[in-house]
């Protein structure tokens, strides 16, 4: 049996599910194994005083950061915390004492993983410099702005770059932890744990963490009207020329507006919208891939497959197998 000390970092205001989700996954693995997993999960904080989470639930640390000095740490799991202003804008909260502790512990750890906005802590500790990383979509712009050395990708539900793992939203902590289990014990055991969690299947890392409808709301009525127009004509061969005429602007101006408002070109947005509709049909219908491709504006299955590979790093058939709602 290989001993694997898992340290989950605690601090005031931490998101509760970020803290409880990963240990639950590590614990459920034991049900699927005859031999001990070797996992020892401890909650670590600056002091042994109770920590109040964002949900108001108090959690007791097992050990202090200083108490881990000299211990061999296998994995560090860093949760996150946010604050919301009067406009309901979300910002990640980073405590210097936590950054310092994570930085020191990571020096001797086999791997480091962040859950949700915990990526901001890793970035502040310099652990994401030069690496590709993800975080919750609502703070991705903050992460990129404050840490330009980090290659932020707000789309995947989790990313592995060498020995550093970053996860997206709250529930993605389960997907991230299942990936850690698969890294240690293989895909088959990770899938068994996923079934224990009543998850459809363990999601691939490339699975998008948000849909088109969750993207930032535009600030102009013109773009909102175009988005509704695209949604209502998704099966048609939409062109930049047609959209420019619809918005009464030049094609160059339309492209500039889309990049400013939505962060992508009109063509990229149209493809994203079509993929979103195709995802919904794959999850909820028995339609053939040919039918879905036609009704979503892709025309051919090959075009549909290429779009899925670009945006979700999977195929339509694989997506349906994983996420079909029975």
Please state the overall shape, judged from the principal axes of the Cα atoms: globular
Q: What gap, in angstroms, lies between the N and C termini?
A: 39 Å
Tally of strands? 13
Share in helix: 40-55%
Q: From the alpha carbons, calculate the radius of gyration and give it in angstroms.
A: 22 Å
User: Could you name the ranges where pLDDT drops below 50 across 5 or more consecutive residues?
Assistant: none
What's the SSE pattern?
EHEEEEEEEHEHEHEEEHHHHHHHHH
Biggest sheet record = 7 strands, mixed
- Percent in strands: 5-15%
Biggest sheet: strand arrangement: 5-2-1-6-9-13-12
Q: Counting H and I runs of at least 4 residues, what is the number of helices?
A: 13
**Mean pLDDT over the full residue set:** 89
Structural class: alpha/beta
List the helices and strands and how they pair.
Blueprint: E1 4-9, H1 16-29, E2 39-45, E3 51-52, E4 58-59, E5 63-64, E6 75-78, E7 82-84, E8 90-92, H2 96-106, E9 111-114, H3 119-124, E10 132-133, H4 140-146, E11 151-152, E12 158-161, E13 164-167, H5 172-185, H6 187-196, H7 221-232, H8 240-247, H9 251-262, H10 266-284, H11 289-295, H12 301-312, H13 316-323
Helix pairs in contact: 1-5, 5-6, 8-9, 10-12, 10-13
Give a short overview.
The protein is α/β, with parallel strands linked by helices. The protein contains 13 helices and 13 strands.
Task: Offer a few descriptive terms.
alpha/beta, 14% strand, 13 strands, seven-stranded mixed beta sheet, 43% helix, 326 residues
Verbal overview:
This protein has 13 helices and 13 strands. Helix content is 43%, strand content 14%. The chain has a 7-stranded mixed beta sheet with strand order 5-2-1-6-9-13-12, sandwiched between helices. Strands 3-4 form a two-stranded antiparallel ribbon. Strands 7-8 form a two-stranded antiparallel ribbon.
């Amino acid at each position: 049996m290989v001993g694997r000390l898992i340290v989950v970092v605690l601090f005031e205001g931490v998101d509760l599910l970020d803290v409880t989700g990963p240990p639950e996954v590590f614990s459920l693995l034991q049900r699927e194994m005859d031999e001990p997993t070797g996992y020892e999960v401890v909650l670590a904080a600056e002091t042994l005083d109770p920590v109040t989470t964002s949900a108001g639930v108090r959690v007791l640390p097992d050990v202090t950061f200083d108490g881990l000095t000299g211990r061999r740490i296998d994995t560090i799991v860093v949760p996150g915390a946010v604050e919301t202003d009067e406009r309901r804008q979300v910002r990640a909260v980073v405590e210097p004492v936590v950054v310092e502790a994570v930085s020191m512990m990571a020096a001797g750890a086999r791997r480091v993983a962040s859950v949700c906005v915990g990526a901001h802590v890793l970035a502040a500790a310099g652990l994401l410099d030069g690496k590709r990383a993800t975080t919750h979509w609502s703070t991705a712009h903050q992460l990129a702005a404050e840490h330009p050395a980090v290659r932020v990708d707000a789309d995947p539900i989790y990313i592995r770059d060498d020995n550093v793992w970053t996860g997206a939203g709250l529930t993605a902590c389960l997907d991230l932890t299942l990936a850690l289990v698969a890294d240690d014990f293989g895909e088959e055991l990770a899938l068994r744990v996923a079934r224990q969690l009543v998850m459809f299947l363990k999601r691939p890392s490339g699975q998008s963490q948000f849909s088109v409808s969750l993207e930032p709301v535009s600030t102009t009525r013109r773009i909102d009207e175009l988005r509704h127009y695209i949604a209502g004509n998704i099966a048609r061969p939409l062109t930049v020329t047609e959209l420019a005429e619809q918005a009464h602007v030049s094609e160059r101006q339309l492209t500039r507006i889309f990049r400013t408002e939505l962060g992508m070109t009109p063509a990229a947005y149209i493809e994203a919208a079509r993929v979103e509709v195709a995802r919904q049909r794959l999850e909820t219908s028995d339609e053939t891939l040919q039918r879905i491709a036609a009704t979503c504006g892709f025309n051919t299955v090959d075009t549909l497959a290429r779009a899925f590979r670009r945006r979700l790093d999977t195929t339509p058939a694989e997506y349906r197998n994983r996420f079909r709602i029975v």
